[in-house]
């Protein structure tokens, strides 16, 4: 939680800095000039001056995400669900040998196959979903 708290503090400090800069711009330019341009425009100009030519992803690199491997699924009525017992077999909607879905925070990003490495399970990515397909799945 310390990292999340630190990110919140940094975000709040940046917001306060931007608002303070907007107030200074307003005082310098007068209210007539302020009505001609948006206060957000001043913040955007300051941010664009700070940013390098490419996106700086260092701020998001430590944000935790949930990686999930989906073997398959099944739809069943609650009646059947309540009748499950130890040793019961649930048929999934996947064929044997079909690649598993790799999801990050519920969004499909890749497909792969299970591997065993020193008594631990892992996944070998066999296909990475294109950025266009990922964006399309969000809408």
From TrEMBL:
* Pfam families xref list: FliMN_C
The record's annotation in InterPro entries points to: FliN, FliN-like_C, FliN/MopA/SpaO, FliN_T3SS_HrcQb, SpoA-like_sf
Q: What is its main location?
A: membrane
Q: Where is this region: Disordered?
A: 1-55
The Gene Ontology terms for molecular function here are: cytoskeletal motor activity
Q: Mind telling me which Gene3D superfamilies this protein's record contains?
A: SpoA-like
Q: Which UniProt keywords apply?
A: Bacterial flagellum, Cell membrane, Cell projection, Chemotaxis, Cilium, Flagellar rotation, Flagellum, Membrane
GO CC annotation, single: plasma membrane
- Membrane topology, as annotated: Peripheral membrane protein
Per its UniProt record, what NCBIfam families does this chain match? fliN (TIGR02480)
What biological function has been recorded for the protein in this entry? FliN is one of three proteins (FliG, FliN, FliM) that form the rotor-mounted switch complex (C ring), located at the base of the basal body. This complex interacts with the CheY and CheZ chemotaxis proteins, in addition to contacting components of the motor that determine the direction of flagellar rotation.
Q: Which PANTHER family match?
A: FLAGELLAR MOTOR SWITCH PROTEIN FLIN, PTHR43484
> What protein name applies here?
Flagellar motor switch protein FliN
Which species expresses this protein natively?
A: Zhongshania aliphaticivorans
What high-level taxonomic lineage is stated for the organism? Bacteria, Pseudomonadati, Pseudomonadota, Gammaproteobacteria, Cellvibrionales
Q: Gene of origin?
A: fliN_2
